[in-house]
Automatic annotation (TrEMBL):
Transmembrane segments: none annotated. Residues 310-518 form the Retinoblastoma-associated protein A-box domain. Coiled coil: none annotated. It is found in: Nucleus. GO terms for cellular component: chromatin; Rb-E2F complex. The lineage of its organism: Eukaryota, Metazoa, Spiralia, Lophotrochozoa, Bryozoa. GO terms for molecular function: RNA polymerase II transcription regulatory region sequence-specific DNA binding. GO terms for biological process: cell morphogenesis involved in neuron differentiation; negative regulation of G1/S transition of mitotic cell cycle; neuron projection development; regulation of transcription by RNA polymerase II. Its main location: nucleus. This is RB1. Belongs to the retinoblastoma protein (RB) family.
Length: 662
C-alpha cells in the first residue's frame, strides 16, 4: 500500500487538487481496493484518476454548484495523465460507482457523460466522411494556379479548414438553443457548418460538383448557400425543410455566422477554451485525433457495447421510412376519413381539429424530453431545458398529425369490417381515445428522431404534455400497432416497452383512473376482481373504450357511461398477469427455482393481482413479484435471501426502472 500511496502522490502532483479532494479520492480508492485488491492493483494510475474524477464530481454536487463547476480538470486531462483510453475510463468509472453505491445524481451526470461521448464519436465519424466527400486531400499541380511559385502547403490549409468546421459546430452547440442532445439535430447543425467553409474554399480544393457549384452561382451569396444546402441534404438524404427554416435561416444561426465570419481557428480555439466545461470530454480532442478519445473500429466505444457502425445513417433511414409510410397523408383528414365523420350523428371534425390545435400548442411550447434528470446539471445551453427551435417542433407535429389521421382511418376501417356499420359517433367523441392515438403517434415520431431517451422518460413526458392518464393510453397501444403494420420493428418494440411501463407502474399511480373502474367492478368492497364469464378475445381499441362484457347479472353504468364491468379492465388485468408471469419465470430461472415452487409463487402473485390489487397502489409490479417469491420460499422453507433475489432481478433483460425502490 505504501508503494501505491507514493504512486498516487506522484499522479496528483500533476493535477491542481485541494487537500480535501486529494484525501477524499485516496480514501475512495482504498475503499474499493479493499473490496477487490487484485483488480485495483492492476494499472493503479488508471484507477487513481477515476477516483479523482468522482471526488471532484461529488464535491461539486455537494456544494450545489453543478452548473458552475469550480475546477479546471477535464476528462481529457485525466486520460492524458493515466494514458488510458476513454472507453476504459468509462468502464472503470461505472465499476467504481457500483462498488461505492454512488448517488443517483452522480449516476445521472456520468450517464450523460457517456451519452455525449457516444454521440460526439458518432458525429465525428460522420463528419470525417462528409469532409472527405467534399474536399480534395491532395490537389494536383495542374489545378494549382501558383504552380510556378513555391507551392503552398495545401495539406495544412485543409487541416485548418477541417478544424474550423468542427470547432464551429462545437461553438454552435454551446451558443445556440438548438437541441443538440439529439443525434439527428446535431447532424443538421453539423452540415450547416460546412456551408461557409465550402463557400470560402478555392474551387480546385473541392471535389466535383462542389467547385463548379460555387463558381456558377458566385454572384448571389444567398443563392449559393441555398444551392449548397440542397446538395448536402440531397447527398445525405436529409429533408431540406427540417434544416433550412428551423436552423440555417434562423436568426440564431445568422448571428453565429456574423460572429465567426473571417475569424481564425486560433481565435475560435480561445473562444472554445472559455466555454468548454470541466469534468467533461473536450470535443476538440476528436478533431485533434487524440488516440485516447477516438474509438477504434475494432473495439467498443463503451465497455462491451459496440458503437453502431453508421448511427446517423441509420437514424436518417428510420426517419425516411416513417415519411414513406405517411406518403399520401396530409395534416388534414383524408376523403375516406371525412366520409366516416359525415356518417356520424354530429360531425366530429370540428372537435377533432380543436383538440389537435390544443395539443399542437402544448407540444410546440414544451421542450423535448432529453435525459431530463441530467439536463439541469450539465451547464450547457443545449442541455438546459431550452426548447428546440419551434420550426423543428412544428415539423414533427405535422408528422404526428399525419400519422394520427392515418391510424384513425385504419382503425375505423377495421371497426367497419368488424361491426358492419359506419356510424362511430360514440367512439369519435371520446376525448381520451383521440389523445391516446396522438400520443402513440408522438412516441413513434420521437423515437424515429431520437431513441437514446428511455421509453419510461419519454412516455411520462408526453403523458404530461397531452394531459392523459396512462391507463387510458394502454387501451390503444396494441390496436395502434395492428392498425399500422408498416411501422418499423424498432418503433413497434418501443411502443410495447411503453405499454409494459404502464402495466407495471404508471397505471398504478395514486391518481390513476384505474381505481375508479375498480370501484365499480370489485365485489363486496374487498378490492377483488370478479370472475368474468367472457374471455377478452377482442382487443380493438373501440371495443375497449365502448363494449362492456356481459355477465350473468347486469351491472350498473356510471354517470359518464363507463360500464362497471368493462372490457378494458379485463384486457388490462390479463396483460398485467401475462407480464407478471413472464417476469416471474425469468427471475425464477435466474435463481434456479424448481417448477413446482414457481407454480406456488405464481398462485400467490395471481391472487395478489386479481384479489388484493389494492396492494399494487402506487407500487411497482416488480416489487410484488419479488415479495411473493420471497414469501413463498419462506413458507416452504426454501432458503433464498432477499439480497439474492435483488441481485437476480438486476440482471433481468427488461432493464429494471430506477424508480423501483428495493
Amino acid at each position: 500500500m505504501d508503494n501505491l500511496k507514493a504512486l498516487y502522490q506522484q499522479t496528483t502532483s500533476r493535477i491542481k487538487l485541494s487537500k480535501a479532494i486529494n484525501q477524499k479520492a485516496w480514501q475512495s480508492y482504498k475503499q474499493v481496493y479493499d473490496l477487490n485488491e487484485n483488480l485495483l492493483s492492476e494499472n493503479p494510475m488508471e484507477w487513481f484518476v477515476v477516483h479523482i474524477y468522482l471526488a471532484l464530481l461529488e464535491q461539486v454536487i455537494s456544494s450545489k454548484q453543478v452548473t458552475k463547476m469550480n475546477t479546471s480538470v477535464t476528462v481529457s486531462l485525466l486520460l492524458n495523465i493515466s494514458k488510458m483510453h476513454c472507453k476504459e475510463f468509462i468502464t472503470k468509472l461505472k465499476y467504481t460507482m457500483e462498488q461505492k453505491l454512488s448517488s443517483p445524481l452522480t449516476e445521472d451526470i456520468v450517464n450523460e457523460l457517456v451519452r455525449n461521448y457516444i454521440l460526439t464519436a458518432a458525429l465525428h465519424d460522420k463528419f470525417s466522411k462528409v469532409f472527405a466527400n467534399i474536399f480534395v486531400e491532395e490537389p494536383s499541380m495542374s489545378h494549382d494556379p501558383s504552380h510556378d511559385q513555391t507551392r503552398p502547403n495545401y495539406h495544412q490549409l485543409l487541416l485548418e479548414k477541417r478544424k474550423q468546421i468542427w470547432l464551429l459546430y462545437l461553438l454552435a452547440k454551446e451558443e445556440t438553443s438548438f437541441d443538440t442532445s439529439e443525434l439527428i439535430t446535431s447532424f443538421y447543425v453539423l452540415i450547416c457548418c460546412f456551408i461557409p467553409a465550402i463557400k470560402s474554399t478555392p474551387a480546385f480544393l473541392l471535389k466535383s460538383p462542389w467547385g463548379s457549384l460555387c463558381d456558377n452561382l458566385n454572384n448571389d451569396q444567398t443563392e449559393v448557400h441555398l444551392a449548397l444546402m440542397k446538395k448536402l441534404c440531397s447527398d445525405y438524404k436529409v429533408d431540406l425543410g427540417e434544416v433550412l427554416g428551423p436552423i440555417f435561416l434562423s436568426n440564431q444561426w445568422r448571428s453565429l455566422m456574423e460572429k465567426y465570419e473571417g475569424v481564425s481557428f486560433h481565435t475560435m480555439t480561445k473562444e472554445w477554451a472559455n466555454v468548454v466545461r470541466p469534468l467533461t470530454i473536450d470535443g476538440l480532442d476528436f478533431i485533434e485525433a487524440a488516440p485516447l478519445v477516438i474509438p477504434s473500429n475494432a473495439t467498443s466505444a463503451v465497455g462491451a457495447a459496440a458503437l453502431p457502425p453508421t448511427p446517423i445513417q441509420f437514424r436518417l433511414n428510420t426517419i425516411q421510412h416513417l415519411k414513406n409510410i405517411l406518403s399520401g397523408f396530409t395534416d388534414s383528414p383524408s376523403l375516406t376519413l371525412m366520409q366516416y365523420f359525415q356518417c356520424c350523428g354530429e360531425n366530429p371534425h370540428g372537435s377533432i381539429s380543436t383538440r389537435l390545435s390544443e395539443l399542437k400548442e402544448r407540444y410546440t411550447s414544451t421542450p423535448l424530453c432529453h435525459h431530463s434528470p441530467t439536463s439541469s446539471h450539465s451547464g450547457s445551453a443545449s442541455h438546459s431545458g431550452i426548447a428546440s427551435p419551434q420550426g423543428i417542433l412544428l415539423h414533427r407535429f405535422s408528422l404526428i398529425t399525419r400519422l394520427y389521421y392515418k391510424s384513425l382511418q385504419n382503425l375505423l376501417q377495421q371497426e367497419e369490417e368488424r361491426l358492419s356499420r359506419t356510424d362511430f359517433s360514440a367512439l369519435l367523441y371520446i376525448d381520451t381515445f383521440h389523445r391516446s392515438l396522438v400520443l402513440c403517434s408522438a412516441l413513434v415520431v420521437n423515437h424515429a428522431y431520437d431513441e437514446q431517451v428511455s421509453a419510461s422518460e419519454v412516455l411520462q413526458h408526453f403523458l404530461a404534455v397531452f394531459d392523459l392518464q396512462a391507463y387510458h393510453m394502454c387501451k390503444v397501444i396494441e390496436c395502434f400497432i395492428k392498425a399500422e403494420p408498416d411501422l418499423s420493428g424498432a418503433s413497434i418494440h418501443h411502443l410495447k416497452v411503453c405499454e409494459d411501463h404502464i402495466l407495471d407502474n404508471l397505471a398504478w399511480k395514486l391518481d390513476s383512473p384505474l381505481y375508479d373502474v375498480l370501484n365499480f367492478t370489485c365485489t363486496g368492497g374487498t378490492g377483488s376482481l370478479p370472475v368474468l364469464s367472457d374471455s377478452p378475445t377482442c382487443n380493438v381499441g373501440a371495443a375497449q373504450f365502448l363494449t362492456p362484457i356481459r355477465r350473468t347479472r347486469d351491472r350498473a353504468v356510471t354517470e359518464n357511461g363507463q360500464a362497471s364491468n368493462s372490457r378494458s379492465l379485463t384486457v388490462f388485468v390479463t396483460k398485467v398477469c401475462r407480464l407478471a408471469y413472464h417476469r416471474l419465470q425469468l427471475l425464477s430461472s435466474a435463481l434456479s427455482l424448481p417448477s413446482d415452487l414457481v407454480c406456488k409463487i405464481w398462485t400467490c402473485l395471481e391472487h395478489l393481482i386479481k384479489v388484493k390489487c389494492e396492494l399494487l397502489k402506487d407500487r411497482h409490479l416488480d416489487q410484488a413479484i419479488m415479495c411473493c417469491l420471497y414469501a413463498i420460499c419462506k413458507v416452504v422453507n426454501r432458503e433464498v435471501k432477499f439480497k439474492a433475489i435483488v441481485g437476480a432481478y438486476e440482471t433481468l433483460p427488461h432493464q429494471p426502472s430506477s424508480s423501483v425502490s428495493l
